[in-house]
Structure formats: structure tokens, C-alpha cells
Write a structure and sequence with these properties.
By secondary structure, the protein is an alpha+beta fold. It is built from 10 helices and 20 strands. The protein has a 7-stranded antiparallel beta sheet with strand order 2-1-5-6-7-4-3. The protein has a 6-stranded antiparallel beta sheet with strand order 10-9-8-13-12-11, sandwiched between helices. α2 runs antiparallel to α5.
């Protein structure tokens, strides 16, 4: 092989369609364009099988093929000599290509049209450069990714709690990787939705916003447990707008008052969603985006997959450490003065949504936690709470023991701080938190009235 396959991975991005030449058993040649190619390893590529066409028939008759790929920046062309091995219709590679195709389809309004029938695996017998004039070389990388990963690993490993871990990770993405728009989403206990726990680089943080598994690039990456990367502008709407438009179209406009828009660039061109996994299970998704075309390549994907691996392991370690034990109870602090008109805290039992006066705060598990805290505070004067007790509190109904209570509390604290609420939650030692209020609270429980009158 005159050229290493991993040295030309950028040519497999599909920015410039590949050209594939095949030949039937009777010697009739055929040339066709191919939109999706996938780097498998140093000796193999995978090509999407979407239609049973002449190329497909030829490959089944004669496994030898030629593929010409083009570098997206320099226009250099490379000729690959291929030998068809097999077609995979299940497994990690198929799911990765299927997810990537589904992500593209979701953002181009082509869901249900694009359908991957199989991943055709080819052995790469040779790679040679096609003679020709190359354009100016690619611009230098924005960052040394190995150095960025090393520096980030040092800062992540020094984190003492999840709140610090999330903040440091996003800060490192900007300072070390030159990524200015990113968000972290965690899987909820039901395993059907992701909720935003932290973001950086957006006008609105979107903390608390949700997205179902399978929705868009983020949801598909989570559902299929594989990185999804798109390098060019392919969609008309951001996630939040798309979700809200879909909800409105389905007659759910009234429900939008409790929807927190997902943050996102209005004109995102490059997107990369990487699953965060640890202990064999999905914890969440690390998502980055840019308004620049082709901002993220294979090397960026490799680096963020490594980062997500360390992030997941650290999250799991911090979560387990937090469950070992709480600090000894401290004397109940004196409550500060709560002056002014009472704030009405309204809780809707149907979905555990909570409003402070008419301002929506949170819903779901975080809503039930908040409601339990303010009830105990108002009814008993209690100000300090134990994470262990909250986890066992039947009023909260954590969907699963694996649900990350600490992450829910972080989400709740950030929502309260962002809203400038009169209620604040602060850490009060390991496994403990303290509630404080600056105004009296008036609690209203709404049993199950969807009209919310």
C-alpha cells in the first residue's frame, strides 16, 4: 500500500462524493457516485448499501472495485483498490452508519426516506494518489489535540464533585480544544430522555431542557451509543425550534410553557455528539457544534471519544463516592429573614412541574425534589437535608436507583440561580444541602388538573 489509509481519513467525510467503479461478470463496467463512506480501520472501509442497483449487482458478481475519494480542502484525489468482503446488517458498525444516516436525515427533513440496508465491508488492497495539482494545503489544526487531551485529563481528574466536573469539562473544551459551543446532557432514570445539565457558549443555558432518545444528532448518538458527526449545514431549524414546532403541530402548544428550549446555534454547520459511557451503560452525551463547515474531523472525534470516556468514569466514581456516606448532621442553622409578599409555589402533581408565581421552574424528578424540600421547609422549618434521605424519600419517586440524584440537585440549583429565585440551594458538606429563602413561601398543590387553572 503506497499510502496509509488512516492518513487520508478526511477524504472519507463524503463532502465530495466518492466515485466507485465496478464490473459485472461479463465484463461490463459501471461507474457511480457514492455519498457515504466510513473509515473502519487501517485496512478496511465500509460503504453504505441503500439501493439494489447496478453497483450492487456487480459487487455480488465480482468483488473487485475501485474507489476514488477527494480531499475536501486540497482536492487531492486517491484511488483505492477494494475487495468486497461482506455486508453487515447489524452490530456496532451498521448501527454507527445507520445512526449517522438517521442523524443526517433528521436534520434534512428526510426521516423515513433514507434507509440503510447494509454496511458493505471492503478490504483496502492499495491506496495511491492520483496525479494532479493540489490546492493550498489544509489550514493548521486549531489545537494540538493530544496536548489538549492531556491538559483536560489533568483538570478533570482533580474535580471533587459533579458540579465542578461539568464546569471544568466545558471550560477545557473552550480553552484547550478551541470549541466555543458545547453542552452536556445526561440520561434520565427512565432511559428514554436526555436532559441538559450544563452548556457553554449560548445566550441561554438551556439547563433542564430535554430531548428524547432518537431525536436529532444528540438523540440518535445516545440511542445507538455511537458518535455522530456532521460536517456541513444540513438542516433548517435548531433542536429547540424543531421540537417546539413539532409539538405545536401535534396540538401540544399549551404544553410549551413547561418546555425549556434546548440551546443551540441558529445556523450550526458542524455537529459532533459523543455518548458518555461507563460501566457498560450510557450516562449521557457530550455535544459540540460550530457555525463553520467541517469544523470537526476524525481526529476531533477520536479526542472527544477519549475525553467522554474519562468523563464517564469520573462521573461514576464521584457518584459512588457521594453515596458512601454523608457528613454528620450539623445543628440546624438559623433561618434568615424572609420579607416581602409571599411567593406562590405551585406544584402540579400530573408531571411534577413547579412554578414560582407564574414563572416556570422545573418539572419531573427535579420538580418533585424541590416540592418535597419546600414542603418540609414550610411545614417544619427545616433548612438542611441529606442526599441519602432524599434518595429514599417516597415522595420523590426516583425512577431508578441508578438515577443520579446529585445531577438532579445540580440541575435544580442552576435553574434557581438562573431564574434569580427567592429560594436557593447550597451544598452544606458531603451529601448535604441547605435551603434558604428571602421571601415567605405559599404552597399550592394542584392534584391532576391539566388545564392548570
Amino acid at each position: 500500500m503506497t499510502q496509509r489509509l488512516d492518513a487520508i481519513r478526511d477524504c472519507l467525510e463524503g463532502v465530495v462524493p466518492a466515485i466507485m467503479a465496478t464490473c459485472s461478470a461479463d465484463g461490463t463496467p459501471n461507474v457511480a457516485y457514492l455519498s457515504q463512506t466510513e473509515y473502519v480501520d487501517g485496512q478496511h472501509v465500509a460503504l453504505s448499501y441503500q439501493f439494489f442497483n447496478t453497483t450492487r449487482r456487480n459487487i455480488l458478481e465480482n468483488p473487485n472495485a475501485r474507489l476514488i475519494v477527494t480531499h475536501p480542502h486540497t482536492a487531492e484525489r486517491y484511488r483505492l483498490q477494494l475487495c468486497y468482503l461482506r455486508t453487515e446488517t447489524a452490530g456496532p458498525l451498521f448501527e454507527r452508519m445507520k445512526a449517522k444516516l438517521a442523524g443526517i436525515a433528521s436534520h434534512t427533513g428526510m426521516s423515513g426516506v433514507f434507509r440503510l440496508l447494509g454496511s458493505d465491508i471492503y478490504r483496502v488492497l492499495d491506496v495511491e494518489r492520483v496525479p494532479g495539482v493540489a490546492l493550498a494545503p489544509s489550514p493548521p489544526p486549531r489545537a494540538n489535540l493530544l496536548a489538549a487531551l492531556r491538559a483536560t485529563a489533568a483538570r478533570v481528574s482533580a474535580c471533587r464533585d459533579l458540579d465542578q466536573l461539568f464546569t471544568e469539562t466545558l471550560a477545557c473544551l473552550e480553552s484547550q480544544f478551541d470549541v466555543h459551543h458545547a453542552m452536556l446532557l445526561l440520561l434520565d432514570g427512565s432511559g428514554t430522555r436526555l436532559y441538559t445539565i450544563a452548556s457553554r457558549g449560548y445566550a441561554q443555558s438551556g439547563v433542564g431542557s430535554e430531548i428524547p432518545l432518537g431525536q436529532g444528532v444528540i438523540g440518535v448518538a445516545a440511542r445507538e451509543a455511537t458518535p455522530i458527526r456532521i460536517g456541513y449545514m444540513t438542516f433548517e431549524y435548531t433542536y429547540g425550534r424543531a421540537i417546539r414546532a413539532a409539538a405545536a403541530a401535534n396540538g401540544l402548544g399549551d404544553a410549551l410553557e413547561t418546555e425549556i428550549p434546548l440551546p443551540g446555534l441558529a445556523e450550526s454547520a458542524s455537529q459532533l455528539a459523543v455518548p458518555i459511557r461507563a460501566g457498560g451503560r450510557l450516562l449521557g452525551v457530550l455535544y459540540v457544534e460550530s457555525a463553520q463547515n467541517l469544523r470537526f474531523g476524525y481526529d476531533d472525534e477520536d479526542a472527544l471519544v477519549a475525553l467522554a470516556g474519562q468523563l464517564g468514569a469520573t462521573m461514576l466514581a464521584l457518584q459512588q463516592a457521594g453515596e458512601v456516606g454523608d457528613d454528620a448532621p450539623a445543628p440546624e442553622p438559623e433561618a434568615g429573614p424572609a420579607d416581602g409578599a409571599p411567593v406562590v409555589v405551585r406544584h402540579y402533581a400530573a408531571d411534577d412541574s413547579v412554578f414560582l408565581d407564574d414563572d416556570y421552574l422545573i418539572k419531573g424528578v427535579a420538580g418533585s425534589i424541590f416540592w418535597a424540600l419546600v414542603r418540609d421547609h414550610v411545614e417544619t422549618g427545616r433548612n438542611t437535608f441529606s442526599n441519602r434521605a432524599l434518595r429514599l424519600d417516597p415522595r420523590i419517586r426516583l425512577p431508578d436507583l441508578s438515577d443520579n440524584l446529585e445531577a438532579r440537585l445540580i440541575l435544580l440549583r442552576r435553574r434557581l440561580n438562573e431564574r434569580g429565585a427567592c429560594v436557593r440551594l447550597e451544598k452544606a458538606g458531603r451529601g448535604r444541602l441547605q435551603l434558604s429563602t428571602t421571601r415567605p413561601l405559599s404552597l399550592v398543590e394542584v392534584a391532576s388538573d391539566p388545564a392548570r387553572t
